[in-house]
Amino acid sequence: MTTHKFAEGLTLHVIKETKFKTVKIMVRFRERLTETHLGKRVLISNMLETTNQVYQTGTAFSRQLSEMYGASFTTGVAKKGNQHLLTINMNVVNPKFVDTDTVSQAIDFIKTALFQPDVSADGFNPEVFKREQTNLIHYLESMNDDRSYFASRKLASLFFTDEAQALPSISTVDLLKEETPEAVYAYYNEMLKTNAIDIFVLGDVDEEAICAAFEKFPLEGRKISSDVIYQQKQIEEPVEITEEKEVAQSILQLAFCLPVTYGDKEYLALQVMNGLFGGFSHSKLFANVREKESLAYSISSTFDSFSGFFKIAAGIDAQNYEKAKALIFEQLEAMKTGDFTEEAIAQTKTMLRNTYLIGQDSASNNVELAYVKALLPTRYMTQYQFLTGLEAVTKADIEAVAQEIIYQAQYFMKGSSLQLEAQED
Question: How far apart are alpha carbons 239 and 411 in whole angstroms?
């Protein structure tokens, strides 16, 4: 990967790679996560993907992409620790296969989307804005009807001591309803001037031509924050909330404080520990809570090494709550005391290794790894470091990591007795 720093906070990364038949371009805006800007960024993401001053309808927008040999243009938002990311992704066929400079066309398309947005007077086009705002609100309302999503939202609000960190990356209905075309457009102009911007181009490309094209973007230097990893404050007493809902299947979610962050010396031991505990089908949670004792319809553990959040999620029958919870904690205690075999460790390492290597064949995954390298260069692990470090993880390392996670919060969505009786009938 070659890096071209146009100005402070404005960087182009070119990854020369010949194994893909397409060229991937990613433009990512980054700033500290705040409640004030969250709804605005989600709306901007949708506006950029819809229309602009050159392609003023969805039909014209799509037609242009089709004429570029079926290019794709997508936008999205995500959280990474303390940071909120707004991303533009574009994929085009390698120009060598079509005798057309698809890469230059793609860069021009991105330039149009960014610097000629669909505006009217002092704000975004009010008609398009209202449509996208309404669509997003309806989408989030439907997401809130999803039991697992709702439970995850509730658990995050109990776990995180920082209110902004507890918010979903896609915002909330209330935050979206507050926004106006004028306020979002004013912030958009601010975002162009203040956000850290990283541009990635991966493929068999002409690096000099790409550098020259992006250098013409009307962007100036900006001060940026390197404060990426969120440090969760451990609470003294776990918080436990139970809510009755008219659902047939109850949901139990548990949150733990995780002191291991991406790139720490314990990071690979954490990967193995999670795989053994609840990450794979041979894990303790799956094998014992779901398969052996039939106390869960589904169960797994996941972690976020950028925010110190370790989660267990299970779908259960309400009457099995006490037994299921007790057995979950028994499995965690088994991890802490080394009650797992070397064969299980080897199986987990093999699965983690295979997952990692499969990811190397994905252009998107390659770009995401390159982004982490650019964001946290001293913590980034090369393929060699990852694979050799994974192999070196010992049983004692796994026990030690398991002993570090601390129980913090529980959200239990309890199926109502009415629903349970209906099931029995």
Answer: 9
What are 13's strand-pairing partners? 3, 200
What is the architecture of the domain spanning 239-424? 2-Layer Sandwich (3.30)
Q: How many Å apart are CA 152 and CA 168, to the nearest integer? A: 10
CA 194/CA 176 separation, integer angstroms: 22
Output the six-digit token pair for 346: 């080897």
Q: Structure pTM?
A: 0.94
Average pLDDT, the chain: 95
Neighbouring-strand partners of residue 22: 93
pLDDT digits (tens, 9 = 90+) for 357-376: 999 999 999 999 999 999 99
The backbone region for 99, taken as left when phi is positive above 0, alpha when psi lies in -120 to 50, beta otherwise, is left
Instruction: Write out the residue limits of the CATH 3.30.830.10 domain(s) in the chain.
Output: 2-215, 239-424
- Whose structure tokens read 């109850």? 250
Contact status, residue 415 vs residue 317, Cβ threshold 8 Å: yes
What's the CATH class of domain 2-215? Answer: alpha beta
In this predicted structure, what is the pLDDT of residue 417?
A: 52
Q: List the end-to-end C-alpha distance of the chain, in Å, as a whole number.
A: 63
